[in-house]
Amino acid sequence: MIERINDYLKEVEAFSSTSSQEIEAFRVSFAGKKGILNDLFASFREVPAEEKKAYGQQLNKLKEAVAEKIKELQSQTQSSAGINKISDPTRTAFPIQSGNRHPLSVVKNRIVDIFTQIGFSISEGPEIEDDWHNFTALNLPEHHPARDMQDTFFIQTDPDILLRTHTSSVQVRHMETHQPPIRTISPGRVFRNEAISSRAHCIFHQVEGLYIAKDVSFADLKQTLKYFTEALFGNSKIRLRPSYFPFTEPSAEVDIYWGLETEIDYRITKGTGWLEIMGCGMVDPNVLKNCGIDPEVYSGFAFGMGIERIAMLLYQVSDIRLFFENDVRFLKQFKPTL
Ligand code: PHE
Questions:
Q1: Whose CA is nearest to atom 2 of ligand 1?
Q2: What are the two backbone dihedrals, phi and then psi, of residue 129, each rounded to the nearest 5 degrees?
């Protein structure tokens, strides 16, 4: 009878498989309820007394060998299943990190939403512009000193071609191709040859707005801006300071009341409580004429703001350069919505 056990022992040692079905069949045949081991244990009674000890020892050896074999084969198939999983091309990437929008996109989308909700369309235009659309049509003829206000990158081979310094150029293009009533905003990237600092960058972004219809007044401009600042900052306390832009007359700079409650407020507003957020004015009749709109019939207002500046205020970011460095530790702090 001991021979039988030894034969089984050899069989167990020789068994090998990577198929989990085969391993399970092996387990059932040896260690199952009606399996070989139970059978052999049941036969123990029939073993002659003098053989009982040796039989018992061999049988235990067989039992351990079976358990050992099953464990060994199962762990092999599990780890190879793991390898198969990793090379499975349909498997999702790990670890999954969800991205989020750049803070400038978040702020731009927010500004665009506010204006599209009151009927403004969105217009876009080229970043490489000609002199006419960026300057001349906007009441800035050649040699006009106000051209110096916007340090321009010219394309060297052609002095007529430049990187747009503002998205007012898009508004010129829009007026040239549309008749009033016109209600449009132009978000986009602009370029100025400025020394980079914590407050200035050569490349930045603007949203400019234009409204032209019959009898548009300065009061309409102010009310639109109050609506906008209330929607964006939750604060419509603004003031308009007289200013100068060649393309608007009269012109103003818009300040929002930021407050002086904290020391930080005091520092941000330099102790005045007010912060400049944009430029605006009534479109100069010369500009309307240049773009084929009759200034005797129509009037309008325009405004323009820097997205970086607004984002710095909303998020309390003190250095504009952070928006351009693409450091994920900075970028991932911004939630998709404001
Ligand atoms: N285009 C001006 C700028 O870039 C902003 C502006 C737009 C001012 C419209 C007045 C009216 O600085």
A1: 304
A2: -115, 170
